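PT: before anyone asks, these are the final sequences, not the draft ones from last week. 1156 residues across everything. Please model them as a single complex and drop the result in this thread when it's through.
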Amino acid sequence: MEKSAVYHQPCSAYAYPYDKDTMHIKIRTKKDDIQSVSFIYGDPFNFVKNEENKYKWISQRKYMIKVAQTNLHDYWFIETKPAFRRLQYGFVLISSEGESAFYGERGFSKLEKKTLISPDYFFKFPFLHEVDLFKAPEWVKSTVWYQIFPERFDNGNPSISPKNVLPWGSKNPGTEDFFGGDLQGIINHLDYLKDLGVNGIYLNPIFEAPTNHKYDTLNYYSIDPHFGDKETFRKLVQESHKRGIRIMLDAVFNHIGSQSKQWQDVVKNEEKSPYKEWFHIHSFPVTEGTNGNIEGKTTLSFDTFAFTPKMPKLNTANQEVQNYLLDIATYWIREFDIDGWRLDVANEVDHAFWKKFHHAVLKEKNDVYIVGEIWHDAWNWLQGDEFHSVMNYPLTQAIIDFFIEDKINAMELVSNLNQHFMKYMQNVNEVTFNLLDSHDTARILTRAKGNKKKVKQALAFLFAQSGSPCIYYGTEIGLDGDNDPLCRKCMIWDKKKQDEDMFLFTKKLIALRKKYQQILSNGRLKWILVDNQTRILTFSRNLGQQSLVFYFNQGEFDEEVPINKNGISYVNAWNETS
Amino acid sequence: MEKSAVYHQPCSAYAYPYDKDTMHIKIRTKKDDIQSVSFIYGDPFNFVKNEENKYKWISQRKYMIKVAQTNLHDYWFIETKPAFRRLQYGFVLISSEGESAFYGERGFSKLEKKTLISPDYFFKFPFLHEVDLFKAPEWVKSTVWYQIFPERFDNGNPSISPKNVLPWGSKNPGTEDFFGGDLQGIINHLDYLKDLGVNGIYLNPIFEAPTNHKYDTLNYYSIDPHFGDKETFRKLVQESHKRGIRIMLDAVFNHIGSQSKQWQDVVKNEEKSPYKEWFHIHSFPVTEGTNGNIEGKTTLSFDTFAFTPKMPKLNTANQEVQNYLLDIATYWIREFDIDGWRLDVANEVDHAFWKKFHHAVLKEKNDVYIVGEIWHDAWNWLQGDEFHSVMNYPLTQAIIDFFIEDKINAMELVSNLNQHFMKYMQNVNEVTFNLLDSHDTARILTRAKGNKKKVKQALAFLFAQSGSPCIYYGTEIGLDGDNDPLCRKCMIWDKKKQDEDMFLFTKKLIALRKKYQQILSNGRLKWILVDNQTRILTFSRNLGQQSLVFYFNQGEFDEEVPINKNGISYVNAWNETS
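LR: through. Structure below.
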């Protein structure tokens, strides 16, 4: 038995409350090393007198299920509903060679009666409190998102376009170009989006800012004048809500734009500025430094996003800054009834601030969805009191590596995905914000070198996972584009230039997603066939008596997939034949 | 290379800020499997142009130090001060057989240039925020605690003793006995405690309650009348502070006494009681159930501590309960200037409540010490926004197993301790509340079957560790006693009956602890000789150019311990000889 590989941590993604009655428990062992794991558990205070008139701790024993395998590990799982919401538990492992051992809070012990009846050797989950549960808004699970980069969706009101506006789609976008996209442009296409089937829109920043991407905010309280005004935005929210579409905005709270009145005051008044504590300033006067690199200058006298002088970092530990940002966060909910906040550069802002943000925002409206921009392992922002979700780029990466760029084989895909899913609690996986591309990456069609079949597979695979999937504007009509700024091309509205086949495919996928939403949100994932040779992948999502079975053939050849129809009633979900 | 054993988790005890400039990074590998680990690190946004005019990520490389070994694992450590408070990092492992591999956020990769320059493969620590630091009051590190069970320390005011009071020390205590100990009794002996050298007193509950232990609170706003009144308590705090002694009280917030007005109102008025939401009630009328076990009755119609009907569990998610308890928590600081709160059954109260508690208490007085009663792995209460410390029973257990009960050998002791220390951040280990016994355990002298030498070794070893050590009243004069109620015997004040030798030993130990406090708080622990045969244990604590070296001989025979005096200036700290 490879004891050094065994891992379990109480009060983590290895032992957490799934709902107010249910605990989930996992344990990790070396791949193929262990033949069975049983779970020994009971209430920590439940003792009864035995024959010798001595009190004895009461425990039960159940087999755990092997739910996931990676290239290095097996993961074992069990669900339990402790009668008194308290849990004391340990594990009995039996290796492939028949060796047995007890594993608990004190590590490995001999499997003997003495150990099994000694509470000291066991792990504890002291009390399941509903208030400490990770809870995301229920609507998120049935939402299919559509991300819009407003400057590039449609120009609905040319009278407010920037002076230097370029004709729509007249060229590939450069970093400084404006094409006049605005909020009215989005309103004009809400019926298009409803027809497509999406029921959530994530908007890149819309507050006043000089750039086309608006991540360098000037004023968080006003809509950028080239995008519209508050009345246009109110109409956008209302018209969206009428169509059952929710609206999520982008909050850029890590930094502010260097043209903002706050930063300009610091530049002008230096140490006398009332805003000097709003930033992380190392010395006055604030200087932009000398040596530039890809991200800016490393000799800045103040902290910025990356090394970008245009984006001075806000001091979110400062009470005034907190009051300012929390008022903004609640203002747009209170006054305009938005449904979600996507948080830019979320991992570089302090946890203490996000906890206050979570509290303030949910107090204003109790089902707002909070999504952090975190590209990597985000476990400690997803404990229930900060974010509901993150932009799930590790999933993106695994899908692209296999379906788009052929960098990994089928087993590596499964290993990478299993490892990622095992990092988070199931509650979290059920509401992650899943995407193939965004304003920050090359577009999926371009990564696939124009191979539509690959894009369709990747999209279908994305839609087959837990979480709520997002389509980056234009993917549904075959928009392409390399890394920023090319991934921010103007949306194509000329029907003749749209890819109708891709549109119908996407629409169908969205419809299926909604039809089978419950099983796709909550169903257990089971890998059935994972074939490196043929690059065929078969898996099912299972909930109660229902299963959805998926067949992906990412190989070069057509293959017959055997379907076991014995005693099972089934339909072909894609073609609606039986 | 046993890759399945390798473990690292960003934003955890494996990667955390130690102070506002410094990060600590650890990685775990299989015992004796890896010959070297190097740390590859840099700022995530720091790129420079290389010869081919392409931007390249700048990283550095340093060897990590193997700081701890357990029976299964090696732990490697490095400290780094990231210039821009951001860190991107990975590890290069070389196995004993010379195999090398890169380990990062995506798991293991081939050690090749492509990997080393690809930020995607690296772990991140996005930004070091001072506000998110784990910070405990600085005074805790130089504090030696003395725990007093007030009913048994001294009867300083017989006029307020309970009617059924027994003559002091006239018998071994039963669970229901009263001996008349009170606050005046403590005041009377403050000079004794100052002479002993302790500078912190932890008091078991002193609020009004029917039992002798007072864990079933009647009224959190009044001092138990048999212990004194608010003026006596104010005097106790003031007289203690005059002598440089801090006072920590016991907050029993998980449950209230069943005789409290709140619970009695529920019993009387049932669903009409204004307090019905203060508890976890499953059905009315509240009944105490039928089937008793060691802890009470499992058919209760309400939640309690364990299954004890006398201790109905408070609903700390209820706003009124929160206001009530937080006012109590701040009242005793505001009005009486107490220095610490020890939190009873802390792990069964919700995290959300403790975060509010932490905030409220530190806002009232910014250096109050918060210690949770948690007997097991408490990592997620020790993240910086709940507790500063826990009662460190896993350390107790390891010391007793080796020094007192000879259950484990020297290497097992070291393994158990290393494993425990590695679980927490160093900031946490520096302020844990370390103890050998308490009102909840048998006394150390009794566990040692009266063997004083063993007790002295265990005490000395406890004092040699990071954290702040606590002496349970009477240990210093040889008080013994088995499990509750026998561990709560009356303090012996008759000099002739006190163990003077133990007193002098304890006093000397405390003095040494204070003299070498800095190195004992912050010095790195290094095991030098760990001999299972002779049961000899040698280790050092090292800080800067100073080392304290400890020799413990827990075996049967006297042994000569070789001291390498070459070129080192040293003193015998115990005998003050050189």
